[in-house]
Structures are given as structure tokens and as C-alpha cells.
Amino acid sequence: MNGYAIVPGMLTADECAAMAAQYEQGQLFRGRIVMAQHGFGSGEYQYFRYPLPSTVAALRQALYGPLAAIANRWHGLLGMDTRFPAEHAQFLARCHAAGQQRPTPLLLRYRPGDYNCLHQDLYGEHVFPLQAAVLLSQPGADFEGGEFVLTEQRPRQQSRVEVVPLTRGDMVIFPVAERPVQGARGVYRAGMRHGVSRLRSGLRHTLGVIFHDAT
Ligand SMILES: O=C(O)CCC(=O)C(=O)O
Ligand SMILES: [Fe+2]
């Protein structure tokens, strides 16, 4: 168990191109973040508005159910009380009632020299513990560098890192902030962060799918 799963070919090359091209359609988004202005790295991203584009809405909806089963198992293993409902709409109602009403799916854009610092996508009290990202550009052709990395911090140990090997259209599913790890004396909580190494050349787009909404 490496702390992530890859789903190859989640989007076709054409779907990736169409999704990346949406970056230029400002009316689709509720906000734009220039990462350097916040110390998040270099590059930028935009959060979609509701209603989400159909491809994004469909992905978020379809992924939620199977991931909720995993999330519930994780919460059981970690002794956490929260359980996740079977339908994403039900979980979103919980977020919205708590003031987390703004959509979190996003498109990211990296140019040469850009990178994304290690982070956790937490946006309020309600946290769905898994998220997904689809790489929309082709490594080695559209860009060089720009690898998706995950770090895992186990109690009383130094952090370890995984470089996640993605090609265009692949989806990675990974923990938002923590995951249960089986140790010699039971299950413990590993802290997780993700980021993107520096782009050496080219242009890289990603679609990020986060299941909780934001305050
Ligand atoms: O660009 C990437 O691969 C990382 C995107 C990211 O941080 C996210 O989807 O939450
Ligand atoms: Fe992220």
C-alpha cells in the first residue's frame, strides 16, 4: 500500500484538451488563485462555480460513492465518529449547512518554473478524506518535470515521499490529510501532503476533484 491509487485513462486525450481549454473561460470559475501571492508555490488555479461543467459534476458524483465506503472504513480504523452518507448530495448538504457552500473542484495551470508546495486541501470543519486529480497534459511532450508527489508522515518517523507516475488522462486518488496505516502494534494515523515538483519546461494542466465544499 503506497497511499494512493492510479486509475489509468480516466479521460481521453480529447477530453483532456477540452478540459484544459476551459481554463481560458473565466465565466466558468468563482475565483482565481495566483499561488505566489499566498506562498503556495508558483502557477495558478481557478475554482469552478456551480453549476459545475457536466464532466466535472459527473466525475465528482460517480467517484464519491465508492470512495465513501473507503472513507467510512478509514474513520472506523482511526476511531473517528463521523460517517459519510452514500450519496454525494447528502454529504454536500452537511457541508452547506455548516457554511461550506463554495465549490472546490478546480483547474490548475503550471508554466516553466512553476510548482505546487506540499499542502492539504482542507476547507472547513467537514472533510472528506480522499480526493482525486486528473493530469490533463502529457509528460515528456507537453511538459518536463512537474511530477505529482505525495508525502507520508508516520508517528515518530521522518517523512517519506512517493512520486506518482501519471500520464495524460490518468487519475490519482489520494488522502487529503491523513490515512490509517497498519503497524506492528495496531493502526495509526499517517499525515499526508501532496504537491507538484518544478516544471522544467512546457505547460501542465490538472483537474482537481475535492468532495467537501469550502467556507
Ligand atoms: O497539479 C497537480 O497535479 C496537483 C493538484 C492539486 O493540488 C489538487 O488537485 O489538489
Ligand atoms: Fe491540492
From TrEMBL:
The keyword Nucleus belongs to this UniProt entry's keyword annotation: no
Domain of life: Bacteria
Domain named Fe2OG dioxygenase: residues: 101-214
Keyword list, A-Z: Iron, Metal-binding, Oxidoreductase
Molecular functions per Gene Ontology: metal ion binding; oxidoreductase activity
Keyword check for Iron: yes
Matches recorded under InterPro entries: DUF2086, Oxoglu/Fe-dep_dioxygenase_dom
Alphabetical list of PROSITE patterns matching this protein: FE2OG_OXY
Stored Pfam families: Oxygenase-NA
Segment forming the signal sequence: none
Family per record: Belongs to the iron/ascorbate-dependent oxidoreductase family.
Listed name of the protein: 2OG-Fe(II) oxygenase
UniProt organism field: Rugamonas fusca
